TrEMBL record:
The entry's keywords: Fatty acid biosynthesis, Fatty acid metabolism, Lipid biosynthesis, Lipid metabolism, Membrane, Transferase, Transmembrane, Transmembrane helix
Chief place of localization: membrane
Regions crossing the membrane: 27-47, 68-88, 147-164, 170-191, 203-227
Catalytic activity: an acyl-CoA + malonyl-CoA + H(+) = a 3-oxoacyl-CoA + CO2 + CoA
Location of the protein in the cell: Membrane
A GO molecular-function descriptor: fatty acid elongase activity
InterPro entries per UniProt: ELO_fam (IPR002076)
Annotated membrane topology: Multi-pass membrane protein
EC number annotated for this UniProt entry: 2.3.1.-
Annotated protein name in UniProt: Elongation of fatty acids protein
A GO term from the CC aspect: endoplasmic reticulum membrane
């Protein structure tokens, strides 16, 4: 991973990337629109490429897609591990050195846009675009997409674009959490698609719980920022949270609220509520009698 650090030192400009994001907000909206169009319209055309479900062509194509998906998940897991090692240690050091309030509420632009941390944060922002690829693989395999799938990807893509461009003291914490969770999550997906689904399936509940924990943490530090920013409005002597603009923290709080609800709903339906009963098929004789 040293080559990424070297690239960051020699070729990456956090301030340049910030300017590009600021000048191209319409690109973010266009990408999101095209992604959602793909989500809703691609399923009707995919059988032409993959073959109809149950056909020999479809089985062969699905096996090929699964192999590519394994590599894709391993790559994203390795990338997330890189980000975790670059962002988490400095974040912990900041907590120990400055405390919670200063870590959450003091924006350090040199740390944010330069150094190894800045490179990892920039790549984190960029990575939300290729993560749309998860949806592509699911659709190619004929999976029905839950609302959570495309809402989560779209909301995170738009938010990180906005937050990185604005500069945010709580963005580092959000990136650290997300990098860590994705390291484990994508490795789990890789093993599942590599033919070890029965082996890793018992750990699925912990992966979902980890995702919910990420949302709970996000609710805490974004709520912390919102609270102190509004407290400053009513009490000018209060310290406030100047490192994150109130519009950024409000937006991030909304993103975490919706994602927390959706992930919690998925957890309850998948692991707590009993599976829905399938309607029993009528006996052959009864069916004939009914049709008669």
């Amino acid at each position: 991973m040293q080559f990424v650090d070297q690239w960051g030192e020699t070729s990456y400009s956090g301030y340049g990337f910030k300017t590009w994001l600021s000048n191209n907000k319409d690109v973010a909206l266009s990408i999101s629109f095209l992604y959602l169009m793909f989500v809703f319209y691609a399923p009707r055309y995919i059988p032409r490429f993959m073959g109809e479900a149950g056909t020999e062509k479809n089985k062969i194509m699905q096996e090929k897609v699964k192999k590519v998906w394994v590599v894709w998940n391993l790559f994203l897991s390795a990338f997330a591990f890189y980000g975790t090692t670059r962002v988490f240690p400095p974040l912990i050091k900041n907590f120990m050195k400055y405390g919670i309030h200063d870590t959450f509420c003091t924006f350090r632009p040199e740390e944010f846009y330069t150094t190894e941390i800045g490179t990892a944060l920039g790549l984190f922002t960029m990575s939300k675009l290729p993560e749309f690829g998860d949806t592509v693989f699911l659709l190619l395999l004929g999976k029905k997409l839950p609302f959570l799938q495309f809402f989560h990807h779209t909301s995170m893509f738009l938010f990180v674009w906005f937050a990185y461009e604005q500069g945010s003291s709580i963005f580092i914490t959000a990136a650290a959490y997300n990098y860590f969770v994705h390291t484990i999550m994508y490795f789990y997906f890789a093993l599942a698609e590599a033919g070890l689904k029965n082996v890793v399936k018992p750990f699925g509940i912990y992966i979902t719980a980890l995702q919910i924990t990420q949302m709970v943490g996000g609710l805490f530090f974004t709520g912390y920022s919102v609270y102190h920013n509004y407290r400053k409005v009513f009490d000018p002597s209060a310290p406030g949270c100047p490192g994150t603009d109130i519009t950024v923290s409000r937006t991030q709080l909304l993103v975490y609220i919706f994602n927390f609800y959706l992930f919690s709903e998925m957890f309850v339906k998948s692991y707590i509520l009993p599976p829905p009963k399938r309607a029993e098929k009528p006996a052959a004789g009864a069916e004939k009698k009914k049709s008669a």
